[in-house]
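Before the break, one more example. Copy the sequence into your notebook; we will annotate it together after we see the structure.
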Amino acid sequence: QVHLVESGGGSVQAGGSLRLSCAVSGVTHISYCMAWFRQTPGPGNKREGVALIESDGNTRYADSVKGRFTISKDNAKNILYLEMNNLKPEDTAMYYCAADWRCRKVTDNDWRRYFGFWGQGTQVTVST
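Here is what the structure looks like once it is written out:
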């Protein structure tokens, strides 16, 4: 059974940095689509895609994080990372790792429908 466990969240001041990790177990490799999503509390708040990496290594980012966040993965260790720099208060959210062995490429902007496996999340809080 596939398990995704996020770590690395915490509280930082605006302008600071964090690196999130997502350890994947129950698989022999992670050469398929993986992504980071985030969600803020409140009714109707959707889980939005932040960054994804496709099976060929191609990466995509939400406009709000381009130039500040970097997604990468260590295929040997089955770990997905999200390097977050120049954090802003609006980046405050619960961050979730997602994966799906059936996905090779994400061909539209509805990222969520491509992912069937999710972690429990790690909280990121950015203060002014």
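The longest strand covers residues 18-25. The radius of gyration is 14 Å. Try to locate both features in your own notes.
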